[in-house]
Amino acid sequence: MVLFLKKTIFFLFFQYVYLFVPYFDIELDIFSQKNVWKVQSFLFLLIVLLFDKELFHSFKSISIKKVVTSSIGAFGVIYLFYQLFSYFYFGSLVSVQTYEMSFFFVLNTVVFAPLLEEMGNRFILIDTSSNKSTNFFFLILTSLLFTLGHLGIRSNGNIFLYPIFFMGIVLGWVCIRQKNIWYSIFAHSFYNGMVLCLSLLMNS
């Protein structure tokens, strides 16, 4: 009951920041681009305060070998889907976007965003001990929420929300299969990091 209450509190805060504020275009100074780090720091602190025991316990049980294989596998499947989707829809492969590689941007992309998004979606809603039908339902639901949370970065209209939804499916599957949220956090972080590395290599 206590864990359910803590998850509910964090879920409401997270969805308000990541979904409600961007969707309804709420213009408050605290949610401006320059203050993103403050909001994310608050959510990170909330995670530590609410789920320190659960995260520490699950972290102790991870296998480095499984982290590596699941992260590389997830990256390969997601990246291949992006390329195939782009090729069949646009007739060309996806070109890697150019990013401003500031320290805070890299830190946010590789550390904060994966942690917050996995905690706010999959950790809160997916119970890896549930039956397959329940897990399937929440796998779809968390992938939809994950997709809606990326509305602000879409390009070419809404078309690239489909690959983001697929990415949510893959990350959710990693979490369910490994029965540990840390695997999807690491897989998400590895994917984002690899995209940044490819951006540096292909646009240098």
Q: How would you describe this protein?
A:
The protein has 204 residues and is mainly α. It has one domain (2-202). The chain is 75% helix and 0% strand. It has seven helices and no strands. Helix 3 (64-90) packs across helix 7 (181-202), helix 4 packs antiparallel against helix 7 (181-202) and helix 5 runs antiparallel to helix 6. The model has no long low-confidence stretch (mean pLDDT 87).
Key features of this structure:
204 residues, mainly alpha, 7 helices, globular
Query: Which of globular, elongated, flat, extended, rod-shaped describes the shape?
Result: globular
Q: Largest beta sheet, briefly?
A: none
Q: Roughly what percent helix?
A: over 70%
Q: Sketch the topology as an H/E string, one letter per element.
A: HHHHHHH
Total DSSP E strands: 0
Sequence-ordered SSE layout with sheet pairings:
Elements: H1 2-23, H2 36-60, H3 64-90, H4 103-125, H5 132-148, H6 161-178, H7 181-202
Quick take:
The chain is mainly α. The protein has one domain.
